[in-house]
Model the fold of this input.
Amino acid sequence: MSRKLLDLWVGIFVALGLAGVLFLALKVGNLSAGNFADTYQVTAKFANIGGLKVRAPVKSAGVVVGRVVDIHFDAKDYEAVVTFSINERYHFPKDTFALILTAGLLGEQYVGLDPGGDEKMLQGGDVIAQTQSAVVLESLISQFMFNKASEGPSE
Amino acid sequence: MSDDNLVEIKDLDFAYDDRPILKGISMEIPRGKVVAIMGGSGCGKTTLLRLIGGQLKPSRGEVLVDGLSVPKLRDDELYALRRRMGMLFQFGALFTDISVYDNVAYQMREHSDLPEELIRDMVLLKLNAVGLRGASQLMPAELSGGMARRVALARAIALDPMLIMYDEPFAGLDPISLGVIGQLIRKLNDALGATSIMVTHDIQESLQIVDYIYFMSDGKVVAMGTPDEIRASQHPFVHQFVFAQADGPVPFHYPAQALTQELLGKDAYEQS
Amino acid sequence: MSNPRQNSGGALLSGITKLGHRVNDALQRLGFAARFFVMLLLHSGQSFRRLHLTIRELYFSGFQSLLIIMVSGLFIGMVLGMQGYETLQRYGSAEALGVLVALSLVRELGPVVAALLFASRAGSSITAEIGLMKATEQLTAMDMMAINPIARVVAPRFWGGVISMPLLAALFSAAGVFGGYLIGVVFIGVDEGAFWSQMQASVDFRYDVWSGIIKSFVFGVAVSLIAVFEGYDAVPTAEGVSSSIKSTVVQSALAILALDFVLTSFMFREA
Done:
């Protein structure tokens, strides 16, 4: 086989392979959604994060605006410190409220951002002061049972 | 080392693991000569070629090629030396995935930046020397054994080496091919001004073409001489070799206990 | 006659001796393999300076594996489509079919199955080629011509395999996703928009796709190294070469699966 023909076939092979990678990146994966866009990081402290995991989405008004990048435990005040990166395009007021929410009844947990009304905007490295922890089903149920029990005798 | 010798081997020992193959070999190969190293199968002849080519390292002793101590050479020096050596392998060892032409051109392309037209002329000349210019576009699988050996010979002399080594050049050839190869070895050696070392056990063919013969047995040189001296030799080993006698200093039987003992002994063992 | 007790003691002793020899041999081979790998890397310059050497191997191990890789990928994707739909529709989440097909392919099946196919298609033929070159003294002849067989024969085959593998794995996954699409959307009738959008929302490029590519690269190194080493280390006889080919396929399969376990536990620990 002549070298030119060989080069041609190998060229076709490499082009096909790269097309495959590109297909996986753009059509199958979410690279097209600006995954590598510039981000800034903010942290928030929660008393309880429930089942939140790294890489969980951060949503505001139902739109994904960022992702959780780190979760660790603060041994001083016994709280969970959650770091998330937010797309540079989106800015939130300083007094934004961070909540841990659940998609559907038993779905995955994510961070919701509820914008406040402050004039100043959150910068990279800022800490969100107001947070609401995850709703833990067990405590909800026990609370409900307790209430029922205390109501019980009056019925 | 005298300048007349291209290769000198001094008191050479070699062992595979703990099995000694060569024991105190000394040889001198003068420039411009064709020298045969003969001996029965498995006496260490091929090992000797590998030692000269630097593919094996001796456990003791010295191998000098053109004044250079082969075992002491660094890798790049060894490769530089090997460019001046050609070797014909027992079954040719042609590269089976490329044509006869490309086989002969292989080293020229690897070791030089010569233009393809020049390489073409050189390849055709080498092939012409072995009478196979017409076969240049065949693949090695399409060649007969004798032709393959000639192509391998053309390949071995591709870079006009100063030393050509032949590992059993006559093995498995019909009498006609055998004669052709024998004549080629002599002719090419003289035409190129090279020196040839030939490892073989084909005594009759060798006696006609070589200048000097070493006989090896059991890892040692047992006899040496010019073809005339060898023919006249009364040395029992040489005599057995030249006249192809089945038994002699080289025994017909592999070492074993006496036949009667082995046959009868078994009976005796079982009865006890 | 010796008593049987002594006999069994002797057998045990010789068994232990044999075991010791085998361990010793295995360690020696491992050491040789490591040295071989270093030599291979040191002599890799030529594979890239004279690129046509590697391009030739890309043709043999890459291009010629295209058909089997893409057809297998398509079938696996189609099977995933059917099985996935069957399970997901019980929970009323058939739109998640795209996610299931894509994640299983991109993370696991693509790199692993493509590497297994590659080992038996290209790896075995690399071993056979090098082993036969050794058996017919072609490698020795090359060495005597002052041409390093590791640089000239082994390294280009190794790099050809290493470069081919991620491309083949990507094509396998892509063909598989297409197969899943074919079954899920075209035949069964899952909503096309949901199929793709759910897939894109859940498949992360860096986390999923990139990990898959890294995996297939590691498998490519492992399979190519095993293939060239088995060929280079083959006993130079017909039986020796055939047993080397066999052990290329067996060892590659084991290496791929074991490495997959290790890599997966590193890459997807959070999930």
Notes: Chain C touches chain B through 14 residues (CB under 8 Å). Residues 43-267 of chain C form one domain. The radius of gyration of chain C is 23 Å.
